[in-house]
Amino acid sequence: MAGARVLCVPNFSEGRDEATIHAIADAAASAGVQLHHLSWDYDHHRMVLAFSGTPAQVKRAVLQAGVVAVARIDLNRHRGAHPRIGAVDVVPFVPLAGLTREQAVAFSHRVAKSFARRLRVPVYLYEYSAREGRPRDLPTLRKGEFEGWIGKRLTGEREPDFGPKRLHPTAGATIMGVRDPLIAFNLNLHPPDVAVARQIARQIRTERNTNPALHGVRALGLWLPTRGVAQVSLNITQTEQTDLFRVTETVRHMAHALGAEIAETELIGVILADDAARALRSALGLKPIEAQQIVPRSEV
């Protein structure tokens, strides 16, 4: 696996205590990974961290950040707009270079096993890492959330792949695995009407199997009270088929039909250069543009 590089975008259930947020990020950075993104939101009560490195660096970063998160986050006192089942809620891996999917899955299993053993937190494998016959999608594995499973024995479909058969009393469970590149993207509406945001999210879920612009799009309509924002929160999971610009324009038309507009948008985490180039082609009507034409300033 010479030259192997992995992207990791863990989501933690903390969006209010900045000391904890920075302690988690610092723990990951100390493993030698390259940090690409850190953001948090009070209403979602969630932070998103994105970093990449060698498999060994990424494994250390996940474990070190996990130790801090489990020690400092108590889900018994956690209430936020975003669904969650764990303090370290979801840990996705995206192979960037030097790894086949099978090698990446084997790597994710090693990290999950070490994480569960070291932190005494049950771990569910998802997406490509899920074992045959097991639930593999994030909404199914998160269903019921922390409150629905705390104190119960985890059996049958709820039995974790690694670790204890009960949720950790304060840190819940963690969902971990290899997935395709994903774009996490929020659209904030004006006027800020949460009923409109929820109607748009329902319409997306209804149409995503028949509307090519919405294939693989997951949607929630949320109200963020401290910001006074009605938000359509999206995960674009099939980025090679469904580009960001087409999704945004489709939501814009849905909002307009309901008497609303898109006031602003937010990219959460990272976007791969191929997906950025695809959106630019759609938005600007460009002749072919290649990902390597998008160059960070530091490389110019």
Secondary structure layout plus pairing:
Elements (H helix, E strand, L loop, with lengths): L4 E4 L2 E2 L5 H12 L4 E8 L4 E8 L1 H18 L15 E10 L3 H19 L3 E3 L12 H5 L2 H5 L24 E5 L4 E8 L3 H14 L9 E8 L4 E8 L7 H14 L3 E8 L4 H12 L16
Parallel strand pairs: 5-7, 6-7
Antiparallel strand pairs: 1-4, 1-5, 2-4, 2-5, 3-4, 8-10, 8-11, 9-10
Walk me through this protein's architecture.
This protein has 300 residues and is of the alpha+beta class. The protein folds into two domains: 5-178, Formiminotransferase-cyclodeaminase, Chain B, domain 1, CATH 3.30.990.10; 183-293, Alpha-Beta Plaits (2-Layer Sandwich). Helix content is 33%, strand content 24%. It has eight helices and eleven strands. It has helices at residues 18-29, 55-72, 101-119, 138-142, 145-149, 194-207, 244-257, 273-284; strands at residues 5-8, 11-12, 34-41, 46-53, 88-97, 123-125, 174-178, 183-190, 217-224, 229-236, 261-268. Strands 1, 2, 3, 4, 5, 6 and 7 form a seven-stranded mixed β-sheet that branches. Strand 3 (34-41) and strand 4 form a beta hairpin. Helix 1 (18-29) runs antiparallel to helix 2 (55-72) and helix 2 (55-72) packs parallel to helix 3. The longest helix is centred in the middle third of the chain and has 19 residues, at 101-119. The mean pLDDT is 95.
